[in-house]
Amino acid sequence: MTNDKLNFVEASFLVVIVMITHIISDLPNDIIKAMGSASILNMIFISAIILLFFLIVAKIFSCFNTNNILYVAEYLGGKFLVTLLSVIYIAYLLFASALLIRKFASLLKIIYFKDAATWTIIACFILVALITLKLGTSNIIKANTLIMPTILITIVIIFISSINKFDFASVFPILGYGAKNTFLNGFENIYAFTGLIYLYLIGPSLKNVKDYTRVGVTSIIFSALYLILSVASIQMLFPFISHDSEPLSMYLSTRTIEFGQFFQRSDAIFMFIWIFTFLSYLSVIGIYISRIGIHTFGSMQNSISPYFYAIIVFIIALIPRNASQIAFLTDVVYKYLAIGVVFVFSFLILLLGFIKKKLTSAIYKT
Description:
The chain has 13 helices and no strands. The chain is mainly α. The N and C termini lie far apart (about 45 Å).
């Protein structure tokens, strides 16, 4: 697994798949609920902040011989710190993937499988992801690279096909609930770019390590573009559902698309494609968890088992009892957990490692 090297496109798509999965899981609607008519402006602002943040991260990594935060953690605090970071990352990835698959399973149950138990839908996704993981990393990477263009096209189609139905008045007032809410309170929407966590880990997997910054910038720009398109589509199509807690807005946007008499249920086409998106996402998460385990515990045999991954995700996904609990876990727990892990704790390790590196170099020079 560790011998599978990624080219530029493969690496970029492995990061972008995370953002697209969040978008389908109704991330745009969560942003609109908080930002109102200033949602698009807030996303442009946040995207610029994230791009600047990553450039700082890439600059710090350039001082080391690796673009992997686990090596930096080991340099900074030895085995204890790298083990702590690994455990936190694995727990975070397990929680995030379980929450997303629960949201999507709930959506499928509402729309198509009203009589099915939610756990059976979740189990089907996890079982397929488990089988995929057993087929090997290279197959997952190739499959993700093949389906990503189709997934990205679906969001573009939703936006373009809906333009004639947009209510452009919904973007006014442009500052929404005020400048303070848009730029200060809205700063917490950096959690929308939690796919950045994979850029902390992907460096050693690149065929050409010089592509690291290009992969990061490209994946962030793609993610930002598609998030802005999705937010704009939902905000201008359905301003009346901006306070809805149900995960339906991305699906409802597909119901507005008409392909003539031949396709009567165009939404089913999008849902079919999005099912593959979630399957790819779960498989990609499994790859990262396994690689973190390999780095921390030192061998393939001691790595995190795909069966362990599947069982834990399944158990966590069943914890929320209703839509209100899912909303709380998404809007509060996941949001602040993501900010804490991706943007505070991880960056603090990089920063302290950088300071230690500079101080060590200065001592040697003297």
